[in-house]
Amino acid sequence: MEPYCKINDIIKEAIKDINFPESIKIFDTTLRDGEQTPGVSLTPDEKVEIAIALNNIGVDVIEAGFPVSSTGEMEAVKKITSLNLDAEICGLARAVKKDIDVSIDCGVDRIHTFIATSPLHRKYKLKMDKEEVINRAVEAIEYIKSHGIKVEFSSEDATRTEIDYLIEVYKNAVDAGADVINVPDTVGVMIPKAMEYLIKEVKKEMDVPISVHCHNDFGLAVANSIAAVEGGAEQIHCTVNGIGERAGNASLEEVVMILKSIYGINTKIKTEKLTNLSRLVSKLTGIKVQPNKAVVGENAFAHESGIHAHGVLEHALTYEPIPPELVGQKRKIILGKHTGAHAIKAKLKELGIEVGKNVTEEQFKEIINRIKSLGDKGKRITDADVEAIIEDVTKRTLKSERIVDLEQIAVMTGNRIIPTASVALRINKDVKKRSAIGVGPVDAAVKAIQSVIGEKIKLKEYHINAITGGTDALAEVIVTLEGYGKEVTTKAAREDIVRASVEAVIEGINRILMTHKK
Ligand SMILES: CC(=O)SCCNC(=O)CCNC(=O)[C@H](O)C(C)(C)COP(=O)(O)OP(=O)(O)OC[C@H]1O[C@@H](n2cnc3c(N)ncnc32)[C@H](O)[C@@H]1OP(=O)(O)O
Ligand SMILES: CC(C)C(=O)C(=O)O
Predict the structure, then answer these.
(1) In angstroms, what is the span from residue 184 Cα to ligand 2's centroid?
(2) 20 to 30 A Cα–Cα from 263, which one of 148, 231, 275, 444?
(3) What's the whole-number average pLDDT of the chain?
(4) What is the pLDDT of residue 325?
(5) Global pTM value
């Protein structure tokens, strides 16, 4: 498939001299670095469920855990290796014999062993000199290889390590048998240009695949991972939803979609499963995905602005870089304060209503006004709200036909005053004003109307429902009135229950009077 954005000549020109590999391997560390997210702890069964989903989506390597860290972790990694998944199963181990033995015991296909190489880590954490660090790395790699297991070696804090020494460490690691060299940006301090340069420098010196592991402390984990690919990396470490230590790791879904849609580079990921995988990891880890998260966020393919919605309805690519289905999402047109007529027309169509057929142009304008004014009040508008507004507007007698209409209403209520309402009703051409008291503002308002209309029409029943939750929800009032031998039931929906009640009652009065007149 032709990538969506590489067709852009600017990008084509910018990357024309880079020799990209056919495909990039995805090393998923959701179950290891992802689980290091503060507060996250998965049970072995939950880890198995995520491992199966990772396998099904097509990741190349699953870092299933850090087996030495607990008996539960060991059990989880053993359970995952026993599934015989297509993905390679990897366990993390310090350059410590016990860590390696426990990983071997779990039956992993690959051991990811690491030791920190930066001056800070050598001096304050490991308390080792440069030579000791190299010796520990070499011993660990040789020990793993002597068990016939694949080794991925990481220089922890590589990006704050003296570059000559880093290359020396990696050369020793490769000589000791490391199959893959991983370059971790442990505290996320790299910038894309520097990452590309570093990977090129490392790659020059060795012929094993180079991998990258980027943290997101400055929000650059994905950009740095991609820059590493531009520098020649063939494998990227990432986590679902970008979870991980501190600000997290490079997000799998973003990395995969950038490679596929912008660079046209393949991974084995079945991208249409990305959103479900993201939801599963969010559910099991308890880490919510921000709505504006790229690719899998709730809003990644949602459009509220009138201009955008119009564009998308005409041709989706106007405001979407890729089709939502490609990542298992659906396009959403959200109605609110920024909505335009095209979006509302489309929503009505979705609900089986056509402007000019089921609703008049005048009613359509009223629907737009009602939706925008609800949005102005800060309300998130649901389909149920739209349906209530449509019903309210379309089932209402036309203003020009009404015998009785509301000119004004004012209510007063409180704990130290008697609820009082004043109404001004237009009856034919006359305006009549009355006030009444009641047990509450709705009761007072209905009684004030009743006193204008007289006793010939009476309220028989009154019900109220909230369409959606919240104190700002649309309230739907349903009333039954009887008069002149006729009974009518009418509805009105407003955020204000007094207005909804008054409008429902006036609608009922009009219906009775209109049939009585005939
Ligand atoms: C950058 C990363 O994300 S690395 C992975 C980080 N993940 C985790 O730490 C989660 C799991 N960790 C654990 O359960 C525990 O820390 C364990 C089981 C690994 C170790 O626990 P403990 O033995 O109690 O040690 P503790 O965690 O307090 O300290 C770490 C020790 O490992 C040493 N160490 C750290 N990294 C390495 C390494 N790569 N190779 C060898 N030794 C190392 C430290 O110098 C320290 O040694 P010391 O005990 O002799 O002072
Ligand atoms: C173990 C290594 C790769 C790591 O997680 C890091 O450096 O962030």
Answers:
(1) 6
(2) 275
(3) 94
(4) 97
(5) 0.86
